[in-house]
Design brief:
The structure holds two protein chains of two kinds. Chain A is an all-beta fold. Chain A has no helices and nine strands. In chain A, the strands form two sheets. In chain A, strands 1, 2, 3, 5 and 7 form a five-stranded antiparallel β-sheet that branches. In chain A, a hairpin with a 5-residue loop joins strand 8 and strand 9 (106-113). Chain A is elongated, with a radius of gyration of 16 Å. The model of chain A is unreliable at 1-10 (pLDDT under 50). Chain B is mainly β. Chain B has helices spanning 2-11, 112-115; strands spanning 32-38, 43-46, 49-51, 62-67, 73-78, 93-104, 117-119, 122-127, 131-143, 158-164. In chain B, the strands form two sheets. In chain B, strands 1, 2, 3, 4, 6 and 9 form a six-stranded antiparallel β-sheet that branches. A four-stranded antiparallel β-sheet of chain B has the order 7-8-5-10. In chain B, a hairpin with a 2-residue loop joins strand 7 and strand 8 (122-127). The chains are: A mainly beta, B mainly beta. Strand 1 (12-17) of chain A pairs antiparallel with strand 1 (32-38) of chain B.
Chain lengths: 115, 165
């Protein structure tokens, strides 16, 4: 039987900052915005999905340049998250989740928290 | 040649040296970095069982969390409950999984293992100290009681989360 044989000793990493982003007024009336940075040190991941959630982990509608961000190895990307002022007070977490490709065995998810 | 060398030495103080500053800028932020130190490998101790345990011929997946601020993050590691890819399976697969601390960069982190919370297939650790912590997961899959897994490639995914508190 051919088992899942994967190279080990291969360090791959994912990072998102800031840990505690803050929403500010955007250039559009009724919309708030915050900016986050994503760093991809995973050769086995080319896309990250962004999500915005309440404290009960319910999804919150948002707009960003990408919902799924394409990133090459060692890329750093800055992206904006726009949320309606009607929903912004319910936002608790902004998360990035790796969209793994065949061969990867660990999916990473990092969530920043609104304070 | 000797005269040329002497002339060069005499002229050296009079040759202006040009220099330019090249500033390097950066900032240090609170961050959580998730790194996969070791990808897991399934061992096949029985025809009906796949396991990452060393005793079963497997390799435990090892995930490292680096946090720069104490008491700012929760680490959650969820072991798989299905194969991400596998040959066609006609019966159910029973999954078991657990995650434990295997190494730390600070002796004060010794309490993480005792304080962990397990619910379902997820193990949660409160990262109360800044530094690096290594977690490993033991995953086992048993096919249809005693059926043999069909030949082919099997992969399953461990989910590593870092949630700001």
């Amino acid at each position: 039987m051919l088992l899942a044989l994967l190279p080990f000793g291969n360090a791959i990493a994912h990072e998102m900052t800031p840990t505690y982003p803050k929403f500010t007024a955007s250039f559009m009336a009724g919309i708030s915005v915050t900016t986050l940075n994503l760093f991809n040190k995973r050769k086995d991941v080319a896309y990250y999905e962004i999500g915005v959630f309440t404290d009960e982990w319910e999804p919150v509608p948002f707009v960003s340049q990408y919902t799924v961000i394409p990133m090459e190895y060692l890329d750093t990307i800055s992206f904006d998250v726009y949320v309606s002022n009607l929903s912004v007070d319910s936002v608790e977490y902004i998360c990035s989740v790796s969209q793994i490709q065949a061969g990867a065995t660990v999916s990473s998810k990092i969530c920043s928290r609104i304070k | 040649m000797k005269k040329l060398l002497i002339a060069s030495l005499l002229l050296a103080p009079y040759i202006p040296a040009y220099a330019e500053n090249a500033p390097i800028a950066g900032s240090v932020q609170t961050r959580c970095l998730i790194t996969t130190d070791t990808n897991g490998v399934f061992g096949n101790p029985l025809p009906s069982k796949l396991s990452t345990a060393s005793a079963d011929g497997g390799v435990l997946p090892v995930i490292r969390y680096d946090v720069t601020l104490a008491n700012a993050y929760l680490a959650k590691v969820t072991t798989p409950t299905s194969f991400d890819s596998s040959p066609s399976l006609v019966d159910s697969v029973a999954w078991t999984g657990s995650t434990a601390v295997t190494n730390t960069s600070d002796a004060g982190m010794s309490g993480y293992e005792a304080a962990k919370v397990t619910y379902g297939y997820t193990t949660q650790f409160d990262l109360t100290i800044a530094g690096s912590t290594w977690f490993s997961s033991t995953v086992a899959a048993v096919y249809g009681g005693t059926k043999s897994f069909p030949g082919g490639s099997y992969t399953a995914i461990v989910l590593a989360e870092c949630i700001a508190k």
